[in-house]
Each structure stands twice: as C-alpha cells, then as structure tokens.
Amino acid sequence: MLIPGFREFNWMQDMWLELDRMQREMGRLFSGTSIPYSQSFPAANTWSRENDVLVTAEIPGVDPKNIDISVEGDVLTVSGSRVMEELAEGEAYHRQERPHGTFRKSVRLPFRVDGNKVEASYQKGTLTVKLPRIESDKPRKISIKSE
Amino acid sequence: MAETGKDLEIRKERNPLQAETTRSRRVFIPRTDIIEKADSIILIADMPGVDEQNVDITLEKGVLTMHGTVNAEAYHRDYRVAYAEYGIGDFRRSFTVTDEIDQEKIEATVKDGVLRLILPKAEKTKPKKITVQTG
Predict the structure, then answer these.
(1) Which range marks the domain in which residue B92 is found?
(2) What is the tens place of the pLDDT at every residue in B90-132?
(3) What whole-number distance in Å separates Cα of residue A45 and Cα of residue A48?
(4) How remote is the C-alpha of A69 from its chain's centroid?
(5) CB-based contact (8 Å) between B118 and chain A?
(6) Is residue B133 part of a domain?
(7) What residues in B contact A37, CB-CB < 8 Å?
(8) Do A48 and B51 touch (CB under 8 A)?
(9) Are the C-beta atoms of B45 and B118 separated by less than 8 Å?
C-alpha cells in the first residue's frame, strides 16, 4: 500500500517540475514574440534567383528620400523613419495602429552581393531592392574532360 | 488632448463575419489611424501595393468599406521565395459611419500605398459658437 502512494508522490513532483519548466519555457517564448517595432518594421520578403536576389519591404507612406539602404557582405540594411500625423490643437487620435518612428531592418541574403550594382525602387509603398550576386561567389560550372 | 474613444463616430464593425470573396485570395485588415479634427474625421490606412486605380470605397447603409486589390499573380514570377515575413493579398476593412458625417462629401486619396479618407462632419453637428451679447 505504501509503495504505490510513494510512487504517486514522485509522479506528482515530476508533474509540477514539468509544469514549472513549461511555464518558464512559455514565458520565454512569449516574451520573444514581442519584437520591438524598430526591428520588426518593415516586414520584408526575400526572393531569389540563381544570380540575383530581390528584397521587398512594405513601407507605406514614406518619402523614398528618407530611406537609407546599405549593403555589407551578405547583409542588407534598410533604415529610415515614418512620421506621425501632426495634430493641431483640439485634434485627437481615436485609433492609432500604424507604426511610426525610426526603423532599422537587416536582412541576411542567401549569398554575397555586389554592393555597387544594387538597384532600389519605391512604388505604391513597397520598396524593392535588387541585388546581384557577387562575381566571385557565383557557382562555377566544372566541365569534365573526356579523353 | 481630448479624450479618445468616448464619442467615436466611427467604430470597428462589430460583426466579424463578412461576405466571403469568390476568388481564393488572402485578405488582410489594413492598419488604420483615425484622427478627429474639428470639422472632419481623417482615416488613414496602410495598404502597400495599392494605388488609386485598384481601391474601392463603398458606403452602404451606413457602413463604409475600403477594399484595396493587390495583384498577387504578377508578383516576381521568375523568382522563388527565399524568406517571407508578409503575405500578399487584398486589404479590406469596414467602419460604421453615423449621420454626423456628411456622407456625400467623403474624399479619398492614395499616395505611396496609404489610403487617406476625409469624412467631413455634417453642418448640423459642427459645434456652433454662440456669442453672448452684453445688455
């Protein structure tokens, strides 16, 4: 009689330990999801082809002059700021969901790119950056000689 | 700053069940700012990929619906997605509009993927200043 009870206690203890571990894990998980705006904005997609890569980012309502693009190795960084509507006396926000302020976003590319040949365009609130693969990084085709 | 949320002319549509689209495409709710000014309400919605040609604004039975269409099919066809943080699809959101808004005079503009709606307040709801005369 005593032994099953003892085993039950052990099992309970294990369960609590497990729950505690899960709770900590969850806490870590959820605190990780609240990425600050400055890093999560703008959302960017990376599209690739054999010898070039395209990065598109949704940055609506920004003057393209205020967007900075820099490339270092295989990392593209887009930074800038989005200004909030200026309010006059007596005006108020009823709802404010659009992010504003400065942002800085780095995207790791699938390969190294030639920083001198980067093209960027801004259309309908979407930034498109085209980055060609650097010549030295291109895959080389090795032909097999037959004799 | 005036208190927000107390006397909202525009509220988010209560009923989340909207008519389904006939085409299978993703629909997103655009992030929207609403500003109350003395003589109008300004509605600003982020709709990247939308221009003045493919935005539809309808006002029916006091419900203002904005629908922006994004051409997803023509999107970088010869590339493959390496990593995606955002999906491509339409934008749609509805707000109820009360009689306080002059529904005939709603103006809409789209610039850099941002839709801006100006909803002028009807004459009768504008605060009137009454001067007190000295006797």
Answers:
(1) 24-125
(2) 899 999 988 888 888 899 999 999 999 999 988 776 666 777 8
(3) 10
(4) 15
(5) no
(6) no
(7) none
(8) no
(9) no
Per-residue pLDDT tens listing for chain A (147 residues): 455 545 555 566 667 767 777 776 666 555 544 444 545 788 898 998 888 899 999 999 999 998 999 998 889 999 999 888 888 888 889 888 898 888 999 999 988 898 889 999 999 999 999 999 888 877 778 888 887
Residue with tokens 């990392």: A75
What lies within 8 Å, CB to CB, of B39 at 6+ separation is: B120, B121, B126
Q: According to CATH, what is the number of the domain A37-87+98-137?
A: 2.60.40.790
Please indicate whether, in this complex, the C-beta atoms of A91 and B36 are within 8 angstroms of each other: yes
Residue with tokens 């299978």: B24
**Looking at chain A, which residue has its C-alpha nearest residue B43?**
A95
CB-CB neighbors (< 8 A) of A46 in chain B:
81-84
CA distance B19 to chain A (A): 24
